[in-house]
Specification:
- This protein has 102 residues and is mostly helical.
- It has 2 domains: 55 residues, no CATH class; 44 residues, no CATH class.
- 63% of the residues lie in helices and 0% in strands.
- It is built from 4 helices and no strands.
- Helix 3 runs antiparallel to helix 4.
- The longest helix is centred in the C-terminal third of the chain and has 21 residues.
- The chain is globular, with a radius of gyration of 17 Å.
């Protein structure tokens, strides 16, 4: 299957980097079910074949995760104050763990 959009437009899905496929699956909610199925299948194949080497470090993912959770649980976005405190604390702990691994 050919990727129909984005920076990898026109490329075979099997040749697109894993982190980009993951980003598309996580952030593009209005893609066709056929494309979503193919992207998820490619990710599973890579995981099962052992080719799933991390191309992004854990520490680089923390800000993205935090941003996504902050958007969802921020009090101004119908979240709660307690939930945002938990999200902030989780970010602190994950950042400390990532720095300790270096």
């Amino acid at each position: 299957m050919i990727m129909p959009f984005g920076k990898h437009r026109g490329k075979q899905v099997s040749t697109i980097p894993k982190n980009y496929l993951m980003w598309v699956v996580d952030n593009c909610h209005d893609i066709s079910p056929t494309l979503r199925f193919e992207l998820e299948r490619q990710l599973e194949l890579r995981l099962l074949s052992g080719r799933a080497t991390p191309s992004v470090t854990f520490a680089k993912l923390i800000p993205d995760w935090y941003r996504q959770l902050a958007k969802e649980f921020h009090p101004d976005k119908r979240g709660s104050h307690d939930a945002m405190i938990a999200v902030n604390r989780a970010k602190e702990l994950l950042t400390e763990m990532a720095e300790a691994r270096r």
